[in-house]
Description:
There is one protein chain. The two termini are 23 Å apart. Helices cover 36% and strands 29% of the residues. It has two domains: 2-154, Ribosomal Protein S5, domain 2 (2-Layer Sandwich), CATH 3.30.230.10; 161-282, 2-Layer Sandwich (Alpha-Beta Plaits), CATH 3.30.70. The model has no long low-confidence stretch (mean pLDDT 95). Helix 1 packs parallel to helix 2 and helix 2 crosses helix 3 (120-130). The protein has helices at residues 64-75, 98-113, 120-130, 134-139, 173-185, 196-205, 208-213, 220-226, 229-239, 261-271, and strands at 2-18, 24-44, 49-53, 81-87, 143-146, 151-154, 161-166, 216-217, 244-247, 254-258, 277-282.
Amino acid sequence: MLVKSYAKINLYLKIGKRLKNNYHNIESLMLPIKLHDDISFEKIDDNSIIIESSNKGLENEDNLSYRAALLLKNKFDINSGIKINITKNIPLAAGLGGGSSNAAATLIALNKLWKLKLNQKRLLNLAMEIGSDVPFFISGKSSIIMGIGNKIKPLKNKSLNVVLVNPGINISTAWAYKEFDKNKKKSKINNKAKNIKELVKSMRKKDIKKISENIHNDFSRIVEKKHKIINDIKSDLKKNGALSSMVSGSGPTVFGIFNSIYEARGAYYKIKDEYPFVFLTKTF
């Protein structure tokens, strides 16, 4: 079985207080994008989980696909093995949800291969045991995300033309949250964040200019202070026609929103050789 494991961008991310379980309440708007990893699943006689990948650093038990497969094997007493091969196209630790997407794709695929007949609600609950972004990828639709990632409200979405730029550095999500908490205690975080309601209204009206004006990410200030190149990328995208640009998730990937595929393509060709990873894509 071969499946596509799609990445995401956050058009909005507001972070609430840290809870006792170390998760944070969030308010977010996530959109899947066409950039994807390719994952194949093959049943094997040996009662084990084998991870193979184009990125050898992922061939270990910390891999979220491995953890997803192990979770299902243990919960449902599966006595057969599986070989999972991941061709990585989504950059690692990039704010694009690659690992979480791989985990969700694994839950969905093995639910079919192992004939578990789990409904979406069961899959969402299992996804939450792996990570807070995983449930979004189970639904796979543009959504408003609340709580600790467990409250998902699908939203009709205008497809957006975007250019992704990754400077080739990794940012740990755990580090970003730790810095956020530290800065919030020192009152360095702007509490006057844009309201998600305006963005949602713009999405429903399919008003790309208003969408661009209302994007927001609480992590932006933190990661831009740490990595000056992120500001350079944002400037480059805007110089080349982006209506707006912002870091996705905890970064470091920056996305630019363009009015049309022609403008997005033009920007892509102008900057594609300037950074390690530049990708022209669309939300869906």
